[in-house]
Design brief:
Elements (H helix, E strand, L loop, with lengths): L1 E6 L3 H14 L5 E8 L2 H6 L2 H17 L3 H15 L5 E7 L2 H11 L4 E6 L3 H17 L4 E5 L8
Parallel strand pairs: 1-2, 1-4, 2-3, 4-5
Helix pairs in contact: 1-4, 5-6
Length: 154
């Protein structure tokens, strides 16, 4: 079984990874932990005046590569899964989160996509939009793990 576990680096995603590890611990799955980061250049392309002003900064950001915090969140996902003796590949993609999750799922021929959902208040709108879009557009099963902590956020 190939499983794509998505993270945004939040404690809610870590909770979802923990639950995933617990649920899959006995089946020896192939797991990839995915983090999608914004493609800053593409996001500002539409706003030509912003793109001109920030061109040099955008170029510097591209040269820096993947932010350290992103790498750390992926490593944290791997660490959580290793407690359940699950090996995980780590991946990043740039672009719209839902779009890139769906592309990765298809390209990697995953059997299951796992996403977190915060569950309440404004946070439901923030992450909920990604998980909701993945659920509605996916051609494969999606497991949405709702955070118990998120219920107390607002």
């Amino acid at each position: 079984m190939r499983v794509l576990v998505c993270t945004d680096g939040s404690r809610f995603s870590e909770e979802a990874i923990e639950t995933t590890g617990y649920l899959l611990r006995t089946i020896n799955p192939e797991v990839t932990v995915l983090r999608v980061i914004p493609n800053i250049e593409e996001e500002y392309k539409e706003y030509d005046e912003y793109h001109r002003v920030f061109r040099e900064e955008i170029h510097k950001l591209k040269k820096l590569g993947i932010p350290k915090s992103v790498k750390l969140s992926l490593e944290k996902g791997r660490e959580i899964l290793s407690k359940y003796e699950i090996q995980a590949e780590l991946k990043t993609r740039k672009g719209n989160a839902a779009e890139e999750i769906l592309k990765e799922a298809k390209e990697g021929n995953y059997n299951l996509i796992v996403v977190a959902s915060y569950g309440a208040g404004i946070s439901k709108f923030m992450l909920g939009s990604v998980s909701r879009e993945v659920v509605h557009r996916s051609d494969r099963p999606v497991l949405v793990i709702k955070s118990s902590e998120g219920q107390n956020m607002m």
